[in-house]
Write a structure and sequence with these properties.
By secondary structure, this protein is an alpha+beta fold. Among the domains are: about 40 residues, no CATH class; about 90 residues, Collagenase (Catalytic Domain) (3-Layer(aba) Sandwich). The radius of gyration is 16 Å and the shape is globular. The longest helix has 15 residues. The chain starts with 9 loop residues before the first strand and ends in a 9-residue tail after the last strand. It contains four helices and five strands, in the order E-E-H-E-E-H-H-H-E. The structure holds zinc ion (ZN). The site of zinc ion has 4 residues, from helix 1. It holds the Pfam family Astacin. One of its GO terms (biological process) is proteolysis.
Amino acid sequence: MSETSYPKVCGSELGYAGPKVHIIVLGNDECFQRGRILHELYHILGFPHEQNRSDRDKYVVVNWKNLLPGIELNFRKFKGRYMDVGPYDYYSLMHYSLYAMANDRKVRTLTPTTKNVDESRIGQRKDFSPIDLQKINTFYKCEKKTQPSSKKMYQTTISQKLKSGMNKKMQEPIDGVISVQGNSKLFKK
Ligand SMILES: [Zn+2]
């Protein structure tokens, strides 16, 4: 693929496929932010978007009629062992915002079903949530390596960041999975 053929979006391949080059696309200036780059790296580790989880209907309603054309893959339900790690996390670095990929930007594409959710934090691209870190540690069996000091530090940092600046209206560049990698057996759409 030549450089000019990459889309002008933030995106990445989904899943580790052994020793090969794994492609992350940072196709516009907005992609060059720490949280957005971490988001794409998380895809390489094998995790799709939070709203791709097979249990997501308990937590969000998708407004399919308002999605941008061709973006449906990022809202489909996936099944697989990556998807079964941990609880559903509204505040994940991998959760879309409530207006993500909307054709009409004034109409939501995702609506939470759970009461007492802090909607201003949904779709955050600041840092891993505590549950994001737990999922990585659990799936890759790194629990012992990260406890106790680094994990505690991360959680403190995240909570501070969530308190500051998270209420700003988030403008979200297009982000999507550009292909599913060699461990695609793990994923069933
Ligand atoms: Zn993504």
